[in-house]
Amino acid sequence: MKQIRLNAFDMNCVGHIQQGMWRHPRDRSTDYTKLDYWTGLARTLERGLFDGLFLADVLGVYDVFQGSSDAAIREAVQVPLGDPLLLIPAMAQATTHLSFGVTANLSYEPPFTFARRMSTLDHLTDGRIGWNIVTGYLDSAARAMGLDAQVAHDDRYDVADAYMDAVYKLWEGSWAPDAVQRNRTTGVFADPSRVRSVSHESAHFRMNGIHLCEPSPQRTPVLYQAGSSGRGRKFAATHAECVFVNGTSKSTVAPIVADIRKKAVAAGRKADDILIFVGATIVTGRTDEEAKEKLADYQRYASEDGALAHMCGSLGIDFSTYAPEDPITMVKTQAIVSNLEAIAKRPEGPQMTKKKLVESLVLGGRQKPIVGGPQTIADELIAWTTEADVDGFILARTVTPECFADFVDLVVPALQERGAYKTAYSDGALRQKLFAGGTSLLPDRHPAAARRGW
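-> structure tokens emitted (454 positions)
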């Protein structure tokens, strides 16, 4: 049986995916500015043998709904928002094995400085860092960075390809494996002949310099990516090691998974070089009935305006202009194309109205929760791995931290009893934990390997 891999999904903010849950009396997400909130979460996830904590991020505000950011600010929809990278050293200190996938937008930071920050984190976590590669989807972020609007969706991936080549040169090619000597007798810390300046020049970036960090445990961090559009899948098949997909059913996700794996092989990689995670929201209890009661309790706090503010921003469509019974027209935007495609594939199809869409936002978010006792949840997760060929799940929070504690205490043992989940961590860096039998470095067939040259 396939061993399920798990990442928790969170963000350095109050309202992440399921909007309104911060109002629940047991929710602690308003403590997001406190380090003990994050170190406590990290310890809980490590107790449950989670592979990692995946931290989302955006650089703008959700200002499409009703033509302003008022609803997002009022409902705490991913604003206020702190920098996710600054949380990681504290959580790494509090744990031994838990890894961290952090979102960083390549559209607004030069490759040279970004490469140093990720190498530093890889050192400080002893090889437990991954990078979620994003190009952004909010026009508000582009304006905040001094642009009139963001680059067109597919063109952003062209920029991303160039960016990856630049950071690969820094991480993989600037320092030879034997450059660092640390020889106290000769007084040579590093051999200058084994360190070189790397240059990159393309339509998007110019760079010439020595990578400022010595080689970290993984050199290139584990590469995460969440693009499920046609162009996004091509990018993922070329670069990504872990791909996150969203889908309303196993039947819609299965062909996406198959296509990504097929494209990976066409790019000279192996199909199992990529692990595919599907987004999920879990509400569980000791029994199915208890879980249903918990869901009903949570629903009392769900925010419709918060959900619409989030959805409108990520789709680039203002649903406030629609009457309840108006059919929704999925026009092309420069936001998250795969989300538009996912909604278009729902059973309602052309009959999707604003009213039906709002009714589907069960807990103030697009993900319909999986609800049930431990065995029910285990059945459903295992079914996803067999019917859709996914490798694991990225679990969004509801009421925190109890949603993750419930999963650890109830669902993890049920999965372990079925032989579908590990009973102990393996040793090594994140890449070694995810890909058993491998090394901490990217395999030679990955495009980054071409930039080594030592």
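The chain has one domain: 5-157+218-302+363-449.
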